[in-house]
């Protein structure tokens, strides 16, 4: 357990569309939640869903078996690794998270500011 189940930002029964709809309704930059990833892959158990600049970003959270840690997005050299998913959230409430839009090839950044609950 990545320490997510008791957290307000964890949407346990939420799929991608529900998460995106909830974030569009919130319409606040930095709104976020964490959901289970769509694929049943133990190496990518969760997805961080962030709203910024009228867009929703789905960022995979990877589980790194060798170190038992978590990281965001695709594997890259020098990436930040965390001991829990909660640590990722706490870190990015303080420091900006880079949002990469691969379709438009743009980069933005925001902090995780507003927890969105899916009703």
UniProtKB/TrEMBL annotation:
SUPFAM superfamilies given in the database record: SH2 domain (SSF55550)
Name of the protein this chain belongs to: BLNK protein
InterPro entries assigned to the protein according to its UniProt record, in alphabetical order: Immunoreceptor_sig_adapters, SH2, SH2_dom_sf
Top-rank taxon, per record: Eukaryota
UniProt domain SH2: residue ranges: 9-116
Gene Ontology biological process terms in this record: cell surface receptor protein tyrosine kinase signaling pathway; intracellular signal transduction
GO cellular component assignments: cytoplasm
Originating organism: Sinosuthora webbiana
Organism taxonomic ancestry: Eukaryota, Metazoa, Chordata, Craniata, Vertebrata
Pfam families, per the entry: SH2
């Amino acid at each position: 357990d990545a320490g997510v189940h008791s957290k307000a930002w964890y949407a346990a029964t939420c799929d991608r569309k529900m998460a995106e709809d909830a974030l569009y309704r919130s319409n606040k930059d930095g709104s976020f939640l964490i959901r289970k990833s769509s694929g049943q892959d133990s190496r990518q158990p969760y997805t961080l869903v962030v709203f910024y600049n009228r867009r929703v970003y789905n960022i995979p959270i990877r589980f790194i078996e060798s170190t038992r840690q978590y990281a965001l997005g695709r594997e890259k050299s020098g990436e930040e690794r965390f001991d829990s998913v909660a640590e990722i959230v706490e870190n990015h409430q303080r420091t900006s998270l880079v949002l990469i839009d691969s379709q438009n090839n743009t980069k933005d950044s925001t902090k995780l500011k507003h927890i969105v609950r899916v009703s």
